[in-house]
Structure formats: structure tokens, C-alpha cells
Design a protein that fits this description.
18 strands; globular; six-stranded parallel beta sheet; 551 residues; Rossmann fold; 15% strand; 21 helices; 35% helix; alpha/beta
């Protein structure tokens, strides 16, 4: 668990001290409560288990809010435990009192205020059950100080009973299953559109089987990366605003779109009424509220996506006559005409070049990211396995990458963990270098340093007539190498393209944490790009733009 103590939660931390002494739990002291929430989030994403974070009342609790909202937007299972002022002064504006239950009500899956110590066993058991079942999400437990100080006989809760909620999977109605299979068998231009729900349910094997059985190309969202092998010939990579050209052309030209654990987010769809305009839609999702929210499907299949896909597989066999050959040839042609490109300059590094080199040397690493251009380049050029891509997608939280990487490294100490950040994002939670140093967490923090809030600058260049308002980060930028040394961490700066390969190898080989400052071309833009309000076929920045028929 990850946390930071304070007055209202001191009784809990006194028990944490005793539990650590017995070897019952492992507590990581962060430098800011937001870091605790993001670390618990990263732990959960890397393992599929529930992440846990602690904070005290007042500012400690409110500092968790961004991390809670990040987990809620991306459906991450997390239990958040906050201290609260004594119950007998709640409502009097006592020192460090905030209504964290009310503040977080829109951004949690469920929440509790403990009223008596005898409730604790039941509440904790229910919280973990709710957080991890159904559509996962964060659950808050607020504990008043006087309740935490009481002694009582602890009785384990062996069974969770929640009337009206079971979080379990129901079989798909037979008529809906038959309709979905009929669409699969008749489609000539099908496309699997995979979201984060596929990662959460562990459905990568079922997706691979379905794709190969019917020879269906696969595109993923930012949250869905890793659910399908991006080196496979059926993969078309990520779709959406900064997706591959061939993924966006495919979604605009398909006649059947199979949405798996995806929510038709605006960064994916572009102009919604022009998204996949010729397609019938099969929508598979565990949350019935998502089905039909943005796009009304032809066939809705509500349930855990792994179980639903297995039902589809059980009801079909390898087809003798597939109708997708011409479609696969068309996609192959798009891949050849519109490839992702890595710019190479003689005198300066390109951001894509740095990320591609890490992808080459550490293909099996766990990668976390912050938010901005570097996040999109990482999504384009990293080809991750299941749960090895960890990024704030729905909320787009700058400052997420390094604390999330801490959580991943605690969960997977034997694996390489690399955080891809930007010079603006890294400064949001840079104090967590102290946590890396204290625990010797060998995270490799990679700063793609262009001296800007890069995505803000790109939008200002393109849509605001180059009025660069409050986006230049050069003034006041720290010397990251000296800053790393101040924390007792190895720091390195890289600017020479000819030394890139050796520098990356040295960073990955270093036994402890590393802060690596890569000075890159300042005005590099992230393409392709779907402008706001445009359809996915109206990309700008294509390497070889040509008018093509999508018929």
C-alpha cells in the first residue's frame, strides 16, 4: 500500500507500524498523496489486483482527488482509505476537516464512512469486492479518528452480501448470440475495436483466437494497448486523434465494427456521426450504461468481455470460406502507403527516435507515460504485451507517469519499468524521486525534453495562429541531472543522435533508478492528427497523403 500519514489517520498508521514489523504488509511512503493514488493505480494496472492508498483528512484527502478521478475514468480497481476528524466534531469545521465523502461522490464507484469499529471487517471486504468486480473502479473508506482509536474484537468477514449488486457475469441471450455470429460470418470488411475493458478482463487470448478465426483486423484504443499483439499482421495499431492512418481508414471503411470493452470516446471517434459510417456494430461491454451511450449497436452483448468472446468462440468454428481477403489486401496497402515514420536528423534527436530505441532495446518492459505528445508517440511506437502499457487515458493526468511506475515496480520488482515523460509533465510530481531513492526502485524515468508543453504548443501552432500562451517551459526549467543527484539518483543528459543506442543501453543496465533527460527537436509535431470536429478520415500530417476510396 502507498500513503502519507497525518493527524487524523495516525491511529491507523500506528497499526501499520505493528503490521509491518510482523511482515503482514508492505507500506511505501510517498512524498505527496497524489503520488500515493497514482502508485496504487499503477500497481493495480500491472497486476489486475486492487491497489490501496492511504491519506489523512483535509488536504491529505483532497490531494488524492486527481488520482481517484484518474482511476475512475479508466475503471481501475482501487481502495482509498482516508482519515477523518473525530465523529463528534464532524460538521463544525474542525481542523483539517473536509467532506471527502461528498467531494469524491462523482468520481468513485462506491464510498463508506465508518460509523463503528465493528463495521470495519464488512466494509473492507465489500470495498475490495466492489472495486474489482463488474466494471472496476475506486472505492473510498473514510475513518473518523475516534472510531480508529477504539479497540474491538475483530471478526473476519467471510462472505459479501450486497443486495442488488453481485458484479457477476450473466449468459448472453441465445438470440443475440445468433445475430452476432450471423454478422461475423457475413461481414466482408470487419474490424475489432478493442478498449480497456479487454485488458481488465484478461481477454487477450480470446481476442487473438477470434481475430485469427475470422481473419479480422484489430485496432485498439489508448487503454486497449497490449490486448492484441501489435506485431501481428492483423494489427493496425491505435485508432483515433493520433492513431495510425491505416487504423483510422479501416474504421471508416469497415462494414462490421466489433467494439470490445470500448466506450466510443471522443478522442477515438472524432466526429461521432461520421464514425464508422457504413458499419453494423456489435458492442460487448460489462457496463450496460456504456452500450448505446454514444453509438446505438446493432447487437448489444452485455457481460464480461472475456466470457462473451468465449461464448462466441464456443458457438463458431474455423470458417472454410472467409470473405475478408480483399479487405486484408486493402489494409496492407494502407500500411505500405501511410506508415508511421521515425524522423532522423544529423544534429538533434527526434522524440520518436528516442522512444523507438527504447522499444527496440526493452520490448518486454512495463511502460508508464505522462500525458501529451510523448504519450502519443509512445502509443504509436511501443508494442506492449498485456498490462505492460500503463497510461492515464480518460482523464489525461499530467504527473501520472512516475508515481504509477513506482507502483508497477513494487508489484513487479524483477521486470524493467520505464516511465516516458515530458519536461512539463515530470515537474508535476517530481518530488517522487525521493520515493524512488528511499526504496531503491529501479525505475528508468525518460524525459522527452523539448522545452514546451508540447501538445499545447502543437495546438497553439495549428489552431491559434502560433500564439504560444503560457506553454514555453524553458524559463525556470531545472537542471535535471543535478536534480537527480540531489536526490541521490543517477542522472544523465543525452543530445547526440550518434550516442543514442549506447546511452539507452547504459540507462537500462543501471542497477538503480535513473533520471534521463533527452534533449529533442523543439518543434516536432505529433502526426497523424485528426483535427477537432473532423472525421477520422480527415487526418492531417500524413506521410504520403492521397485521396482514396473507402468503398
Amino acid at each position: 500500500m502507498f500513503g502519507y500519514p497525518g493527524g487524523a489517520i495516525l491511529p491507523v498508521y500506528d497499526e501499520v507500524y505493528k503490521a509491518q514489523a510482523r511482515g503482514d504488509l508492505h507500506h511505501i511512503l510517498v512524498r505527496h498523496e497524489q503520488g500515493a493514488a497514482h502508485a496504487a493505480d499503477g500497481y493495480a494496472r500491472a497486476t489486475g489486483q486492487v491497489g490501496v492508498c492511504f491519506a489523512t483528512s483535509g488536504p491529505g484527502a483532497t490531494n488524492l482527488v486527481t488520482g481517484i478521478a484518474t482511476a475512475q475514468m479508466d475503471s481501475i480497481p482501487m481502495v482509498v482509505i482516508t482519515g477523518q476528524v473525530p465523529s463528534y466534531v464532524i460538521g463544525t469545521d474542525a481542523f483539517q476537516e473536509t467532506d471527502i465523502w461528498g467531494i469524491t461522490l462523482p468520481i468513485v464507484k462506491h464510498s463508506y464512512v465508518v460509523r463503528s469499529p465493528e463495521e470495519v471487517s464488512r466494509i473492507v471486504a465489500e470495498s475490495f469486492f466492489i472495486a474489482r468486480t463488474g466494471r472496476p473502479g475506486p472505492v473510498l473508506i473514510d475513518i473518523p479518528k475516534d472510531i480508529a482509536q477504539k479497540e474491538f474484537e475483530y471478526l473476519p468477514c467471510d462472505r459479501v452480501e450486497l443486495p442488488g449488486y453481485d458484479g457477476q457475469n450473466e449468459p448472453i441471450p441465445a438470440d443475440l448470440l445468433r445475430r452476432a455470429i450471423a454478422l461475423l460470418r457475413s461481414a466482408q470488411r470487419p474490424l475489432l475495436y478493442i478498449g480497456g475493458g479487454a485488458i481488465l478482463s484478461g481477454a487477450h487470448q480470446e481476442i487473438a483466437k477470434l481475430a485469427q478465426r475470422f481473419q479480422i483486423p484489430v485496432t485498439t484504443t489508448l487503454m486497449g494497448k497490449g490486448a492484441f499483439d501489435e506485431n501481428h499482421f492483423l494489427s493496425v495499431g491505435m485508432l483515433g486523434m493520433h492513431g495510425t492512418a491505416y487504423a483510422n481508414f479501416a474504421v471508416q471503411g469497415c462494414d462490421l465494427l466489433i467494439a470490445v470493452g470500448a466506450r466510443f470516446d471522443d478522442r477515438v471517434t472524432g466526429k461521432l456521426d461520421a464514425f464508422a459510417p457504413a458499419a453494423e456494430v456489435i458492442h460487448i461491454d460489462i457496463d450496460p450504461a456504456e452500450v448505446g451511450k454514444n453509438r446505438v449497436p446493432t447487437v448489444p452483448l452485455v457481460g464480461d468481455v472475456r466470457h462473451v468472446l468465449q461464448e462466441l468462440l464456443d458457438a463458431t468454428s474455423y470458417e472454410e470460406e472467409l470473405l475478408t481477403r480483399a479487405w486484408l489486401e486493402q489494409i496492407k496497402e494502407w500500411k505500405e502507403d501511410y506508415p508511421l515514420q521515425v524522423p532522423v536528423y544529423s544534429d538533434v534527436l527526434s522524440p520518436q527516435q528516442v522512444i523507438a530505441e527504447f522499444a527496440r532495446q526493452a520490448p518486454e518492459a512495463f511502460y508508464t507515460t505522462d500525458v501529451g505528445q510523448h504519450q502519443m508517440w509512445a502509443a504509436q511506437f511501443l508494442k506492449n504485451g498485456p498490462r505492460r502499457w500503463i497510461s492515464s487515458a480518460g482523464l489525461g493526468t499530467m504527473g501520472y507517469g512516475m508515481p504509477a511506475a513506482m507502483g508497477v515496480k513494487v508489484a513487479r520488482p524483477q521486470d524493467a519499468v520505464v516511465c516516458i515523460s515530458g519536461d512539463a509533465s515530470i515537474q508535476m510530481n517530481i518530488q517522487e524521486l525521493g520515493t524512488l531513492a528511499q526504496y531503491g526502485l529501479a525505475v528508468k524515468v525518460v524525459i522527452i525534453n523539448n522545452g514546451w508543453q508540447g501538445m499545447v504548443r502543437q495546438w497553439q501552432e495549428r489552431f491559434y495562429d502560433e500564439r504560444y500562451s503560457a506553454s514555453n517551459m524553458e524559463a525556470g526549467m531545472p537542471d535535471f541531472v543535478k536534480l537527480a543527484a540531489a536526490f541521490g539518483i543517477h542522472g544523465v543528459q543525452v543530445s547526440d543522435p550518434s550516442s543514442l543506442g549506447a546511452a539507452v543501453a547504459d540507462i537500462l543496465a543501471h542497477p538503480g533508478p535513473v533520471l534521463a533527460d533527452f534533449l529533442v527537436r523543439r518543434d516536432e509535431n505529433c502526426y497523424p492528427m485528426v483535427p477537432p470536429g473532423a472525421s477520422n478520415s480527415e487526418m492531417v500530417g500524413l506521410p504520403n497523403p492521397r485521396q482514396r476510396s473507402l468503398a
